[in-house]
Amino acid sequence: MDYMTLPTDASVQLDNITVPGCLLGQDQALVSTNLTYNEGKISAPCADATVVDMKGAMVFPAFVDMHTHLDKGHIWPRTPNPTGSFEGAINAVGTDKPGRWDDVDLPPRMTFSLKCAYAHGTRAIRTHLDQFSPEEDVSWTIFSALRDEWAGRIDLQAACLSNIDMVEDPENFTKVADLVARHDGVLGGLTTPSDRLPSQLETFFAAAQDRGMAVDFHVDETLDPSVNTLKDIAQCVLDHGFDMPVVVGHLCSLSTMTEDDAMATLDLVAKAGLNVVSLPMCNLYLQDRHWARTPRNRGITLVHEMKSRGISVSFASDNTRDPFYAYGDMDMLEVMRETTRIGHLDHSDPDWTNAFLTNPAAACGFAAPSLEPGAPADLVICRAREWTELFARPQADRIVLRAGKQIDRTLPDYSELDHLMRTA
Fold it and tell me: What is an annotated GO biological process for this record, any one (predicted)?
């Protein structure tokens, strides 16, 4: 039997599989083991299970993608980034949004990304939603409908995205916070340097605390070493005892600060218990881009130094075929492969797999990925026996199991979105 087509029996034993040791509570980089699933759940070995020799295939629980932008996805064909820069992305999205991101445009684009993520083996996603005025916003209603529609396939969360200076308009900010809370969302924001930032953060955290909401920030997405709003966020959490989960993403400027400033900031982040999500593919694309000049900096934040301090580090997709990132396919195996190369995760600690599974699930409150008996048999299986085989190829022939059933991995055709790609 070709193991890439698994039997449909209720009980199946996968013999001779390879699993990252950290997923089994072991110190080894990779472990050879067996795994049985019965009636859609991982189980103890069963005498009547159909046994399949997997020939060393690598097995992962289905992935968690904790920082995406489903509302921006796939607008590149109609509104590309003319310069490839961060400023070019901001301007392009600002041009595309008005009058277009509605109940005709958003659902098919967001659904397209969800189809891709599902086919690639992702089971949980947090997306950021650009904030319109509460009176004009349709994205939250659309998101909630999609969350219901995809229940059982992909668990969905959303965080609003607006500059933190929105708190300076108390009436509007209250409406935004209430809107997000009504949709069981996460209070999200973009921090920018300002003398007012500490008081803005205090107001922001108070609104989240009052509504029982977690928070999620876009932070210091620049290579300017003087920008360090991360320090303000950590200090505010410590000063005011905010006890809901806090996620901070990007943190590019840490890579260009002086060593003393960067390490002091990381010590504060560790003390505050912040969860970090790094977006290496997008940051590599946008940061240090200049016409006809080779980039000198990668834009990735200081993930090794964070991990050594016990800071929870995760990696995620970020943008997909939009002005912030022209590529991507909501594929966490691609994220894992490219992050390993960009961030030199190889020749390092053997448990970086947690940054694509266990850490993001804990940071967002998703169910913990597990290969233990009783966990759902939601698995990604690759025809690779060790890391270099896994990362040398895109694993286009991977198997994805959901509740023990092999899913159809056919990806949606880009032509499905052609009717939305009229230029502005």
Answer: cytosine catabolic process
